[in-house]
């Protein structure tokens, strides 16, 4: 019998479905076990991240600056790279290229680069790559506006990170800040408020600090903030990384020591040209480092015309200066181009060209003052970016040039020294200010603030003609318009800048003019002008500004979800981002970016733009209002008192009221100016002055006439005497009648007519003489009153 397919038998195949199910059960059981095991083995996210970070950190040492073009070329975390990409930052700027790698390697980096070169990201990227528990990073900026800006960028680029970041900007909400400041990993702040928390907030400490960043370090380390910064630094751990960023100004070696910088790499990013305001420091530093050499420093003739305080041309003409320079082994001669041609100075080590030569030929002549005959010598040309055209000319002339980078560590910044010299010496200061004289050169093409600094002037003088020039189109402009040339002369002070400054100034003024307690405080500080007044003033202003901000924010309240939140915002005008408390409890390390007060910077900005604050509306200040303001301040002018010949003390300035009518108004202390009364008083004063003046003139006339009469009388006496002598002579020559010539006698008529005298009758011609006299005699106008004439006559009669 045959087997059916269904019948079970010993050789029957197992049911595939059942066996699959059995296999599946077994396999999934194993898989579950594996999964469970895997789960057990899995590390927390933060641990994984740390591991990744340490892998990245191993790559830091391999960073090669020359190979960096994009942020992704650095060994950065995914979160930072994502943030950078989302903010459209891909390629690095020069300062970022030069500093980020060094900072990641843990070096202290003082970085100097011009404004707008991307310094903010240069320090924020390393900040974001610093993993931290507690307060790990402090970013200090000198001004409130800067802290805002920095915080905005930090918020944008670091949004994928889990740190908490906070911005404290001062104001009266110290307590509110104090409650939250401890939960911050990255703190952006201004120095004054930070120190206040260090002093007053018991729970606040920075013992775990890993990185200190000073933005605009030059200003933070300035004398005005020196005490505050020293106190802050005392509260920070010594073992930390420090990044300092500054625009154009050098950071002195002393300051670097103050911050106890170690393992420092100075980064100086410039276009390999000298900055205008550095020129003088470069020259000074060069000379200090070549004290045993003989150098000639060439200034352009223009510089000589500017009278830098030493008569350069004159000295060049003087042979003894020439001889002395030749004789000395080490000396510096300041020279103009006159010396560049022809004069032979043996053994000059350096020909230094402080001002760019007019052309390649002048360069060659100047450089030719060194390396004469078989001697060695070197030539150095200090070039500004605006003078780079000369490089091309020199290359054309086949002059070999080598670019030298200034080593900032060896550069002595004498800016402050220059400024203090000028502060002490008014004459020197005036000379420096005169350097802006338009006769000398085209000041409109100057970078004014930089040029002022290079002359030691902290503030550029007011250049009226330049402002006028900006208002009126120049000839060139008119011509260029006629020729449809679109590039007019570009004055360096734009109207926008002037307007910007004016708005800023008005705002500051309006803050000062506010009434109430605060104003009194401000006045007090102004009068006392304490040494750290600058900082206090800044913080006080900050408080005022913050009040304004609060007002602006108050008006924003309706757009907020509920009133309690709105109240919160109103109460806390500063941005203070910290971690959410609930979240903090749940996961201590995982702290999200969270804007507690729901404050939107953009909204804030547009709000400020849309709603011009009272202060930004330009107020027309009348002279009367200004005078009142000055009166309220109770300033007292200096007195100038001189001593007359008679020993009487006379007050010259301020002029005293001399009129007899010293009105009772003086006692009228109503606090304002009564214009009508003041006018009346001035008129009376004027009348009194005129009378006094007239009297003085009359007295002078009288004196003059008396003198004239005296002189005439003396002349008459002399003539009478001469006549006597003549008569004597005639008597004596009586014997010799033939020798007498009557024509030698004086013509008495002539004599008389020339005199308006009423003297005695002298002989037979007296009648004629009298007639002649009366014919020509005009009635005498003494210019005096009748009484005075009488007095004069009496005086004459008496004498
Ligand atoms: N790598 C980059 N790619 C594109 N834009 C950048 C980059 N770095 C910075 N910027 C932009 O350049 C501008 C200037 O940058 P930043 O404010 O950092 O300059 P700064 O040197 O700090 O200037 P200041 O001294 O005036 O503060 C900013 O608008 C910034 O967004």
Automatic annotation (TrEMBL):
Residues 21-41 have a biased composition (Basic residues). Residues 42-52, 705-724 have a biased composition (Basic and acidic residues). GO terms for biological process: rRNA processing. A motif (Q motif) lies at residues 69-97. Residues 1-53, 516-563, 654-681, 699-774 are annotated as: Disordered. Residues 531-546, 725-740 have a biased composition (Acidic residues). RNA helicase. This is ATP-dependent RNA helicase. It comes from Pan troglodytes.
